[in-house]
Every structure is written in C-alpha cells, then in structure tokens.
Amino acid sequence: MSLAAKSLLLIAVLGLAACNNPDRYGAGGAGGAGGAGGAGGIDTTGLGDPNNPTSIAYFNQTVGDRVLFAVDQATLSPEGRDVLTRQAQWLLTNAGYAAIIEGHADEQGTREYNLNLGAKRAAAVQNFLISQGVPAARLRTISYGKERPLEVCSEEACYAKNRRAVTVLSAGAGV
Amino acid sequence: MGAGRSLLVGVLAAIVGSPSLVRADVMQPTDKSFSFDCSVAPLVLTVEQQEAIADGVGRMWILGAASAEALQSKITVRVCLTEDGRPQNLILLAADGPTEEAVDRLFQTARRAVLRAGVDGGLPLPPDNDDTWRVLDLVFDANGMRAR
Amino acid sequence: MLRPMMKSLAALVAVTLAVILGLATAPVLAQEPPRIVIGSPVIEPMPIAVPTFIDEGGAGDYAREISRVVISDLEGTGFFRNIGEEAHISKVTSFDGGVAFEDWKAINAQVLVTGAVRVAGDRITVKFRAYDVFNGNTLDGAALQFAGTTDGWRRMSHKVADVIYSKITGEGGYFDSRVVFVSESGPKNARLKRLAVMDYDGANVAYLTDSNSIVLAPRFSPAGDQIVYTSFETGFPRITLMDVASLDRRALEEQPGTMTFAPRFSPDGRTVVFSLERGGNSDIYLLDLGSGGLQQLTNSPSIETAPSFSPDGNQIVFESDRTGGQQVYVMPASGGEGTRISGGEGRYGTPVWSPRGDYIAFTKQNAGRFHIGVMRTDGSEERLLTASFLDEGPTWAPNGRVLMFTRETSGAGGQTSLWSVDITGRNLKQIPTDGPASDPAWSPLLP
Questions:
Q1: Phi and psi angles of residue A83, each rounded to the nearest 5 degrees, phi first
Q2: Are residues A39 and A60 in contact, defined by beta-carbon separation less than 8 angstroms?
Q3: For an engineered disulfide with A103, which of A118, B57, C278, C312 has Cβ 3.0 to 4.6 Å away?
Q4: Angle between helix C9-21 and helix B2-15 axes, rounded to 10 deg
Q5: Its pTM surpasses 0.90
Q6: Phi, psi of C267 (to 5 degrees)
Q7: How far apart are CA C441 and CA C438, in angstroms?
Q8: Which residues are within 8 A (CB) of C376 and not within 5 positions of it... i.e. 6 or more apart?
Q9: In chain C, which residues have their Cβ closer than 8 Å to the Cβ of A153?
C-alpha cells in the first residue's frame, strides 16, 4: 500500500469515527494521543491546507473554532459572538460540513453540575449559529463537563482556556 | 445491713410506678458486680468537691464509640458508693433522648465511666464519719457536650 | 478493683420487679442527693482487646487474618483502640472457657472479643463472643457463629466486626459492604476512566468496564445487584444500567439531541431518577425501569440535577441554580417546585439523603475551597466535615454514620483519591486504592 493510500485510509477511519461517535476523547485515549493540536489532538494531516479557506484547518486556525466563557457562565462575550459570526458565515459557505459543538468547564465545580454547564455553553453556541442561519440539522452538541481540560494547571490562566465551547467539524451534513 | 435491706424493700414497694423514674436499670439478673444496698442519707458536698467528682468521672467518660443518637441524649444516673468512693450500684433515674436505644447506649458509657473511676482509686469523696453508703446523682449530657 | 458483693435478697427483689414492670427502682431518700453535672467527656477511642482467634482445627493463617480484619474494621471507625497482645495479662486458650475479667479490667479493656476458627476442606466456621469487661458478661446478642466457604473469609470477618460494632455503639454495621467507583489513569487532560467495585476497605477490587469511554458517578441499586451510571459509550453522555453479575449493560434513555446524567435508584429499585438536558436546560425525570415510562418532575429554565430519594421514597432532594448559584431543594417524589433548604454562603451541590433519613450530605463550595458537609433535612444544623482544594460527591455508608467522597489535588499532577469521614467530622482517612479513583458509591449492607 502506498503512503498516499495509507493516508486516505486514515482519513476515512477518522471520518467514520467522527460520524459515529463524537467522543474524540474516549477510545482508549487515542484522541489525546495525537495531542499536538490544541483542538484535542486531531492530526492536521486530515484537515487540509490551512491556506485553503474551505479546509477544516482554515476553520480551526483562521475562523476560530472556539469561544471562551466567564466563570460559571454560559453567556457569549462580544469576542465570542464575533468568532461565532465568522463560524456561521463559514458554515453557510461550506454546506458540506456538519459540526459537533463541545462544551467544557474548568475544574472549579462539581462533576454533574459542570457536565450541565458544558451543555449550556454548547447550547449557547448552537443557538447563536442557528440564529445566524446555520441549519439546526447540521449542528449537534455534547458536553464533557470538567472531564477534558485543555490546560492542566490549577490557576485562572488555565481555567480561562478550559471554559470553552469548541466547534468540531466533520464532513457530511446532517450528521 | 439487715435494717437497710428491709427498709429498701419497703421503699421499693412505695416507688414502683413513680412517673419520674423513666425506665429499668439494664443490670442483668446474673450480674454479680452490683448490690442494691444503698444509703438513705445523701452526701453533702462543697462546690469544689462536686467539681472534683465531675472531672474525675468525666475523664473516664469515653464517648468516642457513641452513636449519633446517643450523642443527642442526656441522662441522670443515681450512684451508690462505698465509703471509700467505690461505686456499688447505679441506676438510670431520668433520660432524654431520641430513642430508648440511644439512651441505653449513653447509659452504658456512663456506667463504664463510673465503674472505671471506681477502679482507678475511687471517686474523690470527702472523709465521712457516718460510716454510711453514699448517694450521688450524676448528669451525663452528651448533647450538651456536642454543642460545646 | 470492685469489692465482690453477695447479691442480697433486696437486690433480687429489686431486679425482679424492674424486669417485670420495666421501671427503674431507686431508693427514695429523705433528702435529694447532690446532683453533679459530669465534666467534659473523653472523645477518644474505646480501648478493646481482640486476642488472635483460636485455631480449633485446620484454621492455619485464617485465624490470624480474620482477627486482623476484625481489628482493622473496628479501629478503622475511629471508635476503638485495640490493646496489643503484648499488653494482655491472660491468654484466651479455649473459646468456651471462663474469662478472667480482672485481667482485662487491669489493662482497661472495656470490651473483650474472643473467637475461634475451624476449617475443614473449603468450609470455614468462625465463632466469636464479645464481653462487657466491667459488667462481666457477654454483650447482648454478641455471641454468634458464621459458616461458609473459605473464599468468603473476609466477608465473615466483616460480619463479625459489624455485630461487635453494632452491639457496642448502637449504630448499624457497615463493614460487610461494597463500593462502586471510577478507577482513573492517565494524565489530567486525557484521563481514562473505568468502573470498578471493591470492598468498603479497598480490598478485592474488580473492574466492570474497560477504559474506552468516559464513565461517571456510578450508583448501586437498593439490592446491590445493579449499577446506574453516566457513560459516553454511545458518544454522548447517557445514563446506563449494568447488571453486576453478568456485566450486561444498556443505555436507558436515548433521545437524540439530549444528554442524560446523574442517575440514582429509588428506594424500591423500580425507578431511576436522573437529569435530562435539552438545549442547555436540564430537568429531573423519573424512569420506570419496568415499563420504560418517563415522568418529568421539574420544569424550570435552569440546571436541576443530582436528585436523591429520601429512604421512604416520598421526597427527592436535588440541586438547582435557579436563583443563581447551586442550592439544595427538596420536593415531593411526584415532582414540583421544591423548597430550598440550603441557606449559608457559597454553593451547595450533590445532595444525598442519608439511608437513616436524618441528614442530607452535600458538597459545598465557598471562598475557593470545597467541603463535604451534612445538614438536617430542613437545612438546619449544617456541619462542614472536610475542607480541601476539591472534595466532592459524598456517599453514605449503609448505616448513615460514615461518608465516602472524592478528593482531588490541584495542579498539573492533580490526582483523585477516595476518602471517608465520620459524620462528626472525625476520622478523616484515605481509602487505599491501586491508583487514582473517584465517584464512590456505597452498596447496601450485604445479606
């Protein structure tokens, strides 16, 4: 098998996983193992050229795939709204993509409450994107609560980055 | 002792059913440690002497293994002592607690405390010329202790 | 030493009357005796003696190991201190022989436990007797025999200790119980989680799932044969039911676009109360496990979660952030608005009703610290039992006297561990586990 064929296979497997199971973190820690990217360790090989405005890489890096929240809040900040406005425009332009919005919380909170707080953050993003015209059928949400922090220190510098909602793209609308 | 014994029997007949007496002593019929002989003349103690007894018994009163409900209870026990301060008999006079079991557990802690205080040199009683048995009422307030 | 006294006729009469009439018998005095309020009690463990159980044939190491577990159970409560054998004056050489109480009084043992073990093939018999040393008799009901197979020796030890503990303290036993929890591994940002069960003291660990998906907050059924928990196995958080014996499991409620979490059984085991989140708003629902029928219990545009039934099944305590921060509410089991019971500063979550019905345990966050606490079911008498960077998720021992919870340390290397504490706040200690562990839930006392 050629290197190109292997790459294609890898992309196909990743794509399949994304379709069937949004839990990028679950499967034996494989999601975390790739861990170079801030977006939860998806290998950028599969994401296209970041200079190509229709690529996932472009969405993640240039449009911005995440918004941050204040402590114990799920209200969108003005900066967050700017990011989400760009996300909505991109999603409307690139109708072949669906998105799963992951909500996360920092570790300052009880487990089940934080699971719900993450869901509220994801829902806030989902609602904003829908209000901007993105079809609801292309959007799903999931919460990880405080289970998957991006940064591991126990200081506000880390907490601020962990209180996030990340829009994770996958190929194929209507997932 | 003979006179005291017959007097006590008479007294018993008189007080049976008294509403101020809450419940039975948990002493068992097979128990050989106690006798019911007890003086009819109570001790007269100064405040200092009372405090010495309170501290002496308190040091032996182990509540570390008491149930949560026992810790909400308060009991009064009547103790009969020999002239050298050794407890010979003790009964539950009054009780206030959430359940009978809780009161009983607290009574067990109180009984052990009094008996241990007796083993360790006796309760600090003043010298007595009457050569009689002595009687004390001891209040064990676990609830009050917890609140402190 | 107590002066040995002959039991007088009067004493016999007195005891007989007392037994028959159930009334105290005090001498009537011409003058009231001095009334002395006893000073501060000693809140220290009760000294007891548990000489190594006697080998009555074939017991080998079992006699010593069973004695060790009994002592470990009793001392582990913080209620008792075992007086080591080197301090014992007399040796117990025969289970049914007499006991020299004076020798045990002399070392201040308040309770003496003697035991004997016999093993034949794979059958083991354990018998024991607990004496009230200062009273010179057997503690009522504390002379029993357990028989079974040798692989159950630890459970028998726990049962022996449960009886002794219960007879002395008046609390129900809790040693013969299991704890389901989440076993953790891996770094903080990619932590692997799997369900596990262990004895209450950390022994006999068994794993129930692999680490392929996140699992959270397992709870036992009232019979201890099933577990409900939150699993990401389907990709989204779903409440999941597992049969402990077969490990068969199924997601209980699958509505697309929703998340279900925070499940807990009702006291009759027939329904599961949980949170269902839709569009960021969660409410509490009741699922009938037999019919699959779903009943919505709360209807509020805020986070309603962490429901827990009262032991009589009539009420549910839960947390809600409807007034801003998390607070604890109680509602009828049929649902409704609920009445707020938490009132202090800070946030109150994860309420759990005591199996005795008398207290509600909770997690409190205030001024950057986490606490495990208890309060009365009307919110009064709040008592914080712990304080740390992160304590959360209390679970009650079957006797309602002890709580176990998760403690997590701070920073990049932060790890979880299981701790227990008495409801008086004493006896805080870590439960030994192989690795990091979280989300403990106590089983009922085993049959």
A1: -60, -45
A2: yes
A3: A118
A4: 10
A5: no
A6: -60, -25
A7: 10
A8: C358, C359, C360
A9: 411-412
Whole-number Cα distances in Å, B15 to A64, A95, B6, B107: 89, 95, 15, 21
Contact B143, B137 (CB under 8 A): no
Any bridge partners for residue C308, and if so which? C317
**pLDDT band (50, 70, 90) for residue B43:** low
Confidence of residue C98 (pLDDT cuts 50, 70, 90): confident
Q: Among all chains, which residue has been given the structure tokens 């609390």?
A: C171
The conformation of residue A174, written as its DSSP 8-state character, comes to: -
According to DSSP, the β-strands at C192-199 and C178-185 are: antiparallel
Under 8 Å between Cβ of B23 and B95: yes
Handedness of CA C52, C56, C57, C62 (dihedral sign): negative
What residues contact residue A169 under an 8 Å CB cut-off, 6+ apart?
A: A56, A59, A60, A65, A97, A98, A99
3-state secondary structure of B52: helix
3-state class (DSSP) for residue A104: strand
The sheet with strand C238-243 has its strands ordered as C215-220, C226-231, C238-243, C249-251
Spatial distance between the Cα atoms of C403 and B20, rounded to a whole number of angstroms: 39
ipTM, two decimals, is 0.88
- Residue in chain C closest to A146 (alpha carbons) equals C189
Contact C217 A112 (CB under 8 A): yes
- Give the integer Cα–Cα distance in Å for B97 and B72: 6
Q: What is the pLDDT of residues B49-90, one digit of tens each?
A: 888 888 888 888 888 888 888 888 999 998 887 777 778 778
Element (H, E) at C137: strand C137-149
For the stretch C132-153, pLDDT in tens is 998 888 988 889 999 999 999 9
CA B78 to chain CA centroid, Å, is: 4
**What's the whole-number mean pLDDT along residues C250-260?**
90
Q: How far is CA C83 from CA C48, C140, C260, in A?
A: 6, 22, 51
Which tokens is C194 given?
A: 């799997």
Long-range contacts of C203-208 (CB under 8 A, 24+ apart): C203/C154, C204/C154, C205/C433, C205/C434, C207/C183, C208/C180, C208/C242, C208/C244, C208/C247
Distance CA C178, CA C198 (A): 6
Looking at beta carbons, which residues of chain C come within 8 Å of A148? Answer: 189-190
**Residue C19 to residues C9, C23, C25, C131, C300, Cα–Cα distance (Å):** 15, 7, 10, 22, 59
Query: Which of C1, C36, C79 is the closest to B53 by Cβ?
Result: C36
Model confidence pLDDT, tens digit, residues C326-380 = 999 999 999 999 999 999 899 999 999 999 999 999 999 999 999 999 999 999 9
**8 Å CB contact between C351 and C318:** yes
> Do the beta carbons of residue A42 and residue A14 sit within 8 Å?
yes
Cβ separation C282–A116 shorter than 8 A: yes
Chain B residues with beta carbon closer than 8 angstroms to that of C37: 54, 139, 141
Smallest CA–CA distance from B48 into chain C, residue: C36
CA distances, B136 to each of B58, B133, C90, C322 (Å): 15, 10, 35, 58
Find the range with the poorest average confidence among B3-12, B128-137, C128-137, C304-313: B3-12
pLDDT in tens, A13-69: 333 334 445 666 654 333 333 333 334 444 444 678 888 999 999 999 999 999 999
Please report the DSSP string for B63-129 in residue order: -TT--TTGGG-EEEEEEEE-TTS-EEEEEEEEEE-SSHHHHHHHHHHHHHHHHHHHHTT---PPP-S
Residue C340: beta bridge partners? C329
- Is any Cβ of chain C less than 8 angstroms from the Cβ of B40? yes
